[in-house]
Design goal:
two-stranded antiparallel ribbon; nine-stranded mixed β-sheet
């Protein structure tokens, strides 16, 4: 079955988390003192629902939340350019290692309309996983805005209100996991796989945002 999904094991996920975290930490160091940011694994990586299809690789999603701009401008285009260029510099220069000492290298970052993604390969030049980085700011009422490509101007980035609030999703997933009846969490995982496969078949593409599926399940019932 071409689009069948399976959950990624802890052993498979650990190198992706370790190496991508090292990359993000290096990025934070390069951006100081002009910018400060919080970083967090989100979506399926945060909720232990990472999946892979028969191609074998999977995504790990990171959110970078900009908390400080030395000029206090929070310019979308300038922030995007700074992050992209510094990521490109890191990917060109360095290898990264997991806890077992295995080496990995990141390909050049690529732009997506609402994120930056980077393919990661092992020592045998096999694609292992993809890092997907979204950039956010929050207003004074803790409303999230995501940095996206302006649909009316392909050379411009803007801050756009984002419905996929990761904090809401994390809280709801935590509530489910805390239930004494462990079958509820098991059933949730099974339903998640089922819906992801159904959505992918309908759209006939392998770039479905897992966080969108989780949000719909949690808000509309499952």
């Amino acid at each position: 079955m071409k689009y069948q999904y399976n959950f990624v094991t802890k052993k498979e996920f650990e190198p992706a988390h370790t190496t991508s975290l090292s990359l993000i930490n290096d990025l934070q160091d390069l951006l100081r003192p002009n910018y400060k940011m919080d970083r967090l694994v989100t979506g399926s990586g945060k909720t232990k629902l990472v999946t892979k299809n028969v191609n074998g690789y999977f995504d790990i999603d990171w959110n970078l939340v900009i908390t400080y701009d030395i000029n206090n401008e929070f310019s979308a285009s300038h922030i995007r350019k700074s992050i992209f260029n510094n990521l490109q510099s890191l990917c060109d220069k360095y290898k990264y290692y997991d806890k077992q000492g295995n080496s990995y290298y990141f390909d050049k970052p690529k732009n997506h309309k609402r994120s930056i993604y980077i393919n990661c390969y092992n020592e045998n030049n096999e694609l292992c996983f993809r890092v997907d980085i979204a950039i956010y700011v929050y207003d004074s009422k803790w409303k999230p805005y995501i940095l996206i490509l302006d649909k009316n101007n392909s050379q411009k980035y803007i801050w756009n209100p984002d419905a996929e609030d990761v904090y809401y999703i994390d809280e709801k997933i935590t509530e489910i996991k805390k239930n004494d009846d462990k079958r509820i969490w098991d059933n949730f995982r099974k339903e998640y796989l089922k819906r992801k496969y159904a959505v992918l078949r309908k759209n006939n593409q392998d770039n479905i945002r897992s966080i969108s599926i989780l949000r719909d399940m949690l808000k509309n019932g499952w």
